[in-house]
Amino acid sequence: MNCEDLMNIPKIYSGMKLIAGGSGMYRNIRWIYFADCTQCLSDDFKVSQLIHGGELVIVTNAALTDNDDKMLSMIVEMNQKNIAGLVINVGQISPMLTEYCNDNELPLFELSYDLHLIDLSQIVCKALVEEESNTNSIDQLLAAIIYSSNINDADIKIRAGYLGTSISDKNHIVVLKLNKNNKLQDSYENLQRYYDYDNGSFYDDLKAAGVNVSYSSRNTESIFTSTIVPNLMNLSYVASDDGYSIDNIALTENASLLKLFQNNGYTVNMIDHLGFLKTAGCNVLNDDLEGDTISTYLINNSALKQIESVMKELYKRSHGDSMSYESYTRNILELMENSPDYIAKNQPTLTIGYIQSPHDPIMFREDGSALPENQWHNWKDKQLYIGQLKYISQTIENVIQNIKESDPDALVIIQSDHGSRYPYWMVEDFDAEAYDEQEENFYMQNILNCVYYKGETIDIEGENGINTLRRTLNYVFGTDYEMLDSEECVKTY
User: Fold this and answer.
1) Is it the case that residue 464 has pLDDT exceeding 60?
2) What is the 3-class SS of the chain, one letter each residue?
3) So what's the architecture of 169-477 in CATH?
4) Where in the chain are all domains bearing CATH 3.40.720?
5) The whole model's pTM is what?
């Protein structure tokens, strides 16, 4: 878990604010260290003796924070040991410390009194323990797969299931129903605001193809995927930012939308990019994306997304240097484009496709060719993201066209979960002069929202994701879902 991951925890972002050192948000957090002891004021005290590296250092003792020289000396010493970041109470941060943290890319967070230290430490330590436990389990599983001469497929499948990864022998799948664009996605208004880019041609193409397009849809209950997607899958507000992400995602298993169709004789197919959804009871096409071996599947799916360095190394071992997250994502996109080839023509099917792009990393040029890895997080050159956006937009158009040609009576729903995620530590990347949390929170809630059904008109303008699904189901299948009042997210990023 790095500092950016920390600020994505709902219970943290409302009580902590980044003050300086935003360029260092990549720093990994190993543990928490409370540097509040009175001995820290002693001239002969060496704080470096207590620092191992990777600590999120918390200082609340005013006797320390009021002493600029001592405080700066202590922080310089700790930074030499590569601490992850610094947390100080509101009203106790000096301009000198702010300047140092900016100059040295050391994240400096201001802690609100509303977020108690006991809660902060519990949340962070719980997240770190869960991450380490998951990593250790994954390491053991990978070792059994890669280095064992006698692999028991049944045992591997069971162990992978415990890690939240489904390894299925089924390989008949899929179409596009739900499209998730995570960080800077193709919301019409957002692109104009952040990139001075008019995406009107994309919307015009969709409308010309008979697609109903909403220009003003917003998911107001949250700006987090782990809250919004479970809500969409359950056609109701079952998850909230007050819950842990892992608990919210668990709500996608046997979700209401799935059970509705399964109970009416539908087969449920999925394309599940990065293993985000719970797919028990569903056919998952990307189970065999890279081949028919268990090793290949595990290396290219969800369990490894949290340990990027291991993932890259294992890609190289199995596929050579050419295999990467970029090629895996490209294969997912191609799978979605060709999804009608995997649908049984005489079997009613609900197909859900989940894709992270055009979320960063920025991997694709407009023509689909690969960008070099050193450009994957280059937000200052806005044309790089626009190029990836155009590539993804063309893919969406291709998906719709292929589905229409395969089944003219198909229902296609395309949604993002939220809009541009522009957090305050990215102000410099966007060359902005100021940051208004309330205003940016509003824009983060913008979504892409489109429905196609035989070229017929379905009025979804201004509807959020949940009510769009409810209204569409009522129109196509004659259900009687009521429109729900939108829940409002009062927290900012």
Assistant:
1) yes
2) CEHHHHHCCHHHHCCEEEEECHHHCCCECCEEEECCCHHHHCCCCCHHHHCCCCEEEEECCHHHHCCHHHHHHHHHHHHCCCCCEEEEECCCCCHHHHHHHHHCCCCEEEECCCCCHHHHHHHHHHHHHHHHHHHHHHHHHHHHHHHCCCCCHHHHHHHHHHCCCCCCCCCCCCCCCCCCCCCCCCCHHHHHHHHCCCCHHHHHHHHHCCCEEECCCECCCCCCHHHHHHHHHHCCCCCCCCCCHHHHHHHHCCCHHHHHHHCCCCEEEEEEHHHCCCCCCCEEHHHHCCCCCHHHHHHCCHHHCCCHHHHHHHHHHHHCCCCCHHHHHHHHHHHHHCHHHHCCCCCCEEEEEECCCCCCCCCECCCCCECCHHHCCCCCCHHHHHHHHHHHHHHHHHHHHHHHHHCCCCEEEEECCCCCCCCHHHCCCCCCCCCCHHHHHHHHCECCEEEEECCCCCCCCCCCHHHHHHHHHHHHHCCCCCCCCCCCCCCCC
3) 3-Layer(aba) Sandwich (3.40)
4) 169-477
5) 0.60
